[in-house]
Amino acid sequence: MSVPLRSPSSFFTPVIAGVAYFLMASIALLCSRFEGGLAFIWAANALLMAELQTSETRYWPRVIAACGIASMISTALFGMGPAAALPMAAVNIAESLIVAILCRRFIPVHLADGSKRSLLVFILALCLPANMITGLGAAMVASALTPVKFSAAWLQWYSGHVLGGLTCTPILTMLLQGQVSRWIEQTTGKKKLEAVGLLMVFALITVHVFFLARYPMLFLLLLPLVVIAFRVGSLGAAASVVLLAIIGGAATVTGHGPLNMVQGSIGERTQLFQLFLAFSFVLSMPLAAELNGRRRLFQMLQASEARYRAIAEHSGDVVLNVSVDGVIEYASPSAAEQIGCAPGLLVGRPAEILVDPEDRPEVIRAHRRALAQPGDVQTVEFRPLLSTDGADWCEMVTRAMLDEQGLPIGVVSTVRDMSRHKARQRALQRVAAVDTLTGADSRWAFLEKLEQEIQRVARGSHACLLLIDIDHFKSVNDRFGHGAGDKVLSGFVERLRPGLRGGDSIGRLGGEEFAVLLTGTDIQRATMVCERLRNMVSAQRISADGVQTIAVTFSAGLVELDGKAGRAELLEAADKALYRAKNSGRNCLRLAA
């Protein structure tokens, strides 16, 4: 879920942010400068981080200036004095900028989306470059102006700023992006009461653990933390961590709670509390992020399931859910109409029972391809074994269904009647296979037959190819017109057909050029057939317009198929023989060399 960036235009918005930063910084300096150097607890930078992460970059200079001034004033008044004001403000701003820039760079959506990725990027940016680098600058200032050693100052900065950022940045980000107000508006009263009740119980348990318990019972806090993360989500987890920080931090600083049973200075006990707080954060926030992701996924699955059911139950196509081993797990209501079988009777039976036995291997292969290639859609045509409406062809579109790990758990298939499509396809093929003028095979249909015959000859059969060209056909068009020429072409084919056998084919290759495929015939018999055809054509004139008749002869080239030469080679050989026939005076046959 993408969250829009804020673009505050009011003059008072950065001023309010600066005042809030000053108050948070001043309280931290007054309450946690136990050794006279840096504050052990620091949450002010969390406010600046939240402001930068949730707003457009053109707003950054104003809020940085406001928080920088607030940092200098609080440091000068309650911290290490005026000399440290400017360098500490620069270090504080640098920490917030590093976190904001890295989060903007590596998070496609913003922190409040509650995803594991955004939370991980934020934690890494805060704990590694931001505070490791800026801690060096802060430690140099502190070691130069106070008695605190460099290493101790760096540890104070790192622990205080990391824990302050982890504790407060998520909840402040949610507040600034309106997540809290949206939760209040969109959540039911029952859920609100549950959330408030859980947080109150958690607060009471925390008070008991840190102020009343006689024994160290920090483990009591783990269960309610998990319950709040589970029931309320990221907002509840962030709120519980803030409650723990406020109550536990106040108790530890004032000398109460289980951590004060540990020997050491108050600063050391504060750092130990911060370590516990970090573990609490790492326990609750990632858990809430994981649950948020699962909740969104569940909602998406519910919506997808609703759409799927609506489509499946009102579609004329049959929708099937088929397991990995090919068993039907769901059949849509249209199965009763299309297949003639109630959907409930199909469940638990192999899907192959719907398919004609001859087509089952191809359907099974499509099922296996869908499982092996989950991202691809497999389409297969088959003849149904049963059909109530006379469907003779169906199309099945199949795609794999995946589990959480991306492994296939079955397929969803849509089966539709494509008999009309097949009938239209066959009709178009028939039309395309016939020359509309002469009734002979079209060029591509004849060449397909020639290709099939070449394969049969390779298996031991005999066949010959006869290439024919009508003699002086151009003069027919010139003298009598194209209409007469068309009648000559159609009449020519009619003259040839009686001389052909059932297995022979005649095709028009183009213009006045024809080809005859003589099957089961060697070159000698084919020569006799050609001569017979030539005599049949020349013996009877063709009527052009009912009165005018035209004498027609043809030249021909003959080649015998050997099963080795391809289609192009055979046509070229026959064409060369035809060329020799034309040069020999026409109205004759020549054999290919």
UniProtKB/TrEMBL annotation:
UniProt keyword Transmembrane, yes or no: yes
Keyword Manganese assigned: no
Domain PAC: 378-430
EC assignment: 2.7.7.65
Topology versus the membrane: Multi-pass membrane protein
Places the protein is found: Cell membrane
Entry-linked InterPro entries: Biofilm_reg_signaling, GGDEF_dom, MASE1, Nucleotide_cyclase, PAS, PAS-assoc_C, PAS-like_dom_sf, PAS_4
Domain of life: Bacteria
Ranges annotated as spanning the membrane: 12-30, 59-78, 84-107, 119-145, 157-176, 196-215, 221-251, 272-289
Stored CDD domains: GGDEF, PAS
MF-aspect GO terms: diguanylate cyclase activity
Residue ranges of domain PAS in the record: 304-374
Keywords: Cell membrane, Membrane, Nucleotidyltransferase, Transferase, Transmembrane, Transmembrane helix
GGDEF domain residues: 461-593
Cross-referenced NCBIfam families: GGDEF (TIGR00254), sensory_box (TIGR00229)
Protein name from the UniProt record: Diguanylate cyclase
Species this protein is from: Sphingobium tyrosinilyticum
